[in-house]
Amino acid sequence: MHSSPTRRAATVALTALAPACWGTTYAVTTQLLPPGHPLFAGLMRALPAGLAGLALTRTLPRGQWWWKAAVLGVLNIGALFPLLFVAAERLPGGVAATLGAAQPLLVAGLAIAVLHDRPTAWRWTWGVLGVLGVALVVLGPQARLDAVGVLAGLGGTAGMAGGVVLTKRWGRPAGVGPLTLAGWQLTAGGLLLLPLTFAVEGVPERIGAGAAGGYLWLGSMGGLIAYTLWFRGIGRLPVGASAPLVLLSPLVATVVGITLGESLTWPQTTGFVLALAAMLAAQLDIRRRPSMPTQKTIAVLGATGMVGSRVIAEARSRGHRVRALSRKPVSDDPGVTPVAVDANDPSALREALAGSDAVVLAVRTFPADAAFLTGTTRTVLDAAAERGTRVLVVGGAGALRSPGDQELLVADNPAYVPAEYRAVAAAGIAQLEACRSHAAADWVYLSPPAELAPGPRTGRYRRGTDTLLTAPDGSSSISAEDMAVAILDELENPGADRHITVQAS
Asked: 150 phi and psi, to 5 degrees?
């Protein structure tokens, strides 16, 4: 299995291909496409690619995802394209590109309200430096400002920033991959552009071979492929790491311009380096989680359950004090404080968590009760965020990716999850999405292997990230006792990943 830093670097590189492809749009438009038809270009970039995505995946939205896909399609594509075209027509390219480079700052601001994510001074500083770097590269002495053009440019940038944040907030439905999500949004955006295009512009009188090739490039590499990689990356990367990658778009456009005979001045070269540095700096997580000192208090919610009871035993063996939270807790250990609490009572739950240095949320429901599970999780994360307390959520294996098929969740894989447990697996996925939407809290989601049952404590296990781990014979299991060992290890020496799993060694 690849190491976590290697996998993250690969995810960043693949995600960066999307804005890199978008950076070729200006050159393709000016060199190949008929002039005076930017809306038609946007339509050809969106609708055929979206329909191709639907044909390939054969999956339509269901339930609330009909309106969610429409909203995301408007923000990321349908409204973005015409607003950017207006900005491009009324502003010099450098001014328009600089407005687009402000997207990471807008994402950071929206993340505070939508994701409860409070960006650090590090992210704000590099966001500003990224805009400055792009401005040095693309702004020239001929730069002029037009009020309508500026508003259009900022509107398009703000729309896509909102799309990034909402895509992170809503995630994807269980069993839906990024290709499907890209198809939905491109189709929705294309359908919005369809009447607008024919009402304002119509079809170019002549579409030659070069123009056909340009439309094909914009719809494939700049459309379906780029947006599939982009939505895949948004789902896997922190929002503060994915948003700054859009700086690549104007930088790639500059590189393409150099190949066409342009040259860079020293200020432009400095700006180029500064923008790249800002993009790379955003990938660094400088908020290091300190190791938990010894003999601290750990609150265990679900204390009488299979995992919770063993977490208490492991914590006590390491010298920690424990607050055992459940409906009817009992303990004769002087180091364990039983606290009777109803997880359905947010006020009582918040009070019970007070004074804890870390929280283990080990509550499961069978039959599945996703509303209870996500509600309790949000309450715990809210309380922990206010106090700066670390939370370890013992989740479900269904949220992991299947070994050998990264786009297939374990919840949808009959080899690991029988039909009667699908609802339970789906509740675990909803719980993980509740965690991801609460970026302000210091949380980690631990998915067990496919099989978790009482057994011997060996103290040995393998640790992974978001893909199910298996033994050479294909089995996936761990004892509840060794699961507790892994939980205490993670609390005492936190890793950098927010979604992890373990497997018997």
From this structure: -65, -45
Give CA–CA dist 225/227, Å, rounded.
6
CB 310 within 8 Å of CB 483: yes
**Distance of alpha carbon 14 from alpha carbon 492, whole angstroms:** 33
b or e along 460-473 (b: 16 or more beta carbons within 10 Å of the residue's beta carbon)?
A: ebbbbbbbbbbeee
Q: Report the C-alpha gap between 390 and 145 in whole angstroms.
A: 48
φ, ψ (nearest 5 deg) of residue 146: -130, 125
Beta-bridged to residue 358, according to DSSP, are 298, 390
pTM of the model: 0.63
How far apart CA 112 and CA 100 sit, in angstroms, is: 20
Cα 205 to Cα 33, 358, 475: the distances in Å are 12, 67, 62
Q: Residue 74 in 3-state DSSP? A: helix
Pairing of strands 461-464, 499-504: antiparallel
Angle (deg, nearest 10), helices 25-32 and 248-259: 40
Q: Angle at the Cα of 258 (from 252 to 264), degrees rounded to 5?
A: 100
Residue-by-residue pLDDT tens, the chain, 505 positions? 334 566 678 888 898 898 888 888 777 887 888 888 888 988 999 999 999 999 999 999 988 889 999 999 999 888 887 777 666 666 555 555 566 667 776 777 777 676 656 666 766 676 777 777 766 765 655 555 567 767 877 788 888 888 888 887 777 776 678 899 999 999 999 999 999 999 988 999 889 999 999 999 989 998 899 999 988 888 777 767 777 787 777 777 777 766 766 566 777 677 667 767 777 777 665 554 545 556 789 999 999 999 999 999 999 998 999 999 998 888 888 899 999 998 888 888 888 888 899 999 999 877 888 889 999 999 999 888 888 889 999 999 999 999 878 778 999 888 888 888 888 899 999 999 989 888 678 899 999 999 999 999 999 999 988 899 998 888 899 999 999 999 999 998 888 788 999 999 8
Q: Which residue has the tokens 């790379």?
A: 280
For residue 242, CA distances in Å to 107, 108, 238, 353, 454 come to 10, 11, 6, 33, 40
Q: Across the beta sheet with 358-361, what order do the strands follow?
A: 336-340, 321-326, 297-301, 358-361, 390-394, 442-447, 499-504, 461-464
421 burial (CB, 10 Å; 0-12 / 13-18 / 19+) is middle
Rounded (5°) CA angle 458-463-465: 155
d(CA 343, CA 353): 11
End-to-end CA distance of the chain: 14
Closest residue by Cα to residue 489 from 388, 358, 385 = 358
> E-assigned strands of 363-464?
390-394, 401-402, 405-409, 442-447, 451-453, 461-464
* Among 485, 479, 464, 461, residue whose Cα is nearest residue 402: 464
Q: Are strands 297-301 and 442-447 parallel, antiparallel or unpaired?
A: unpaired
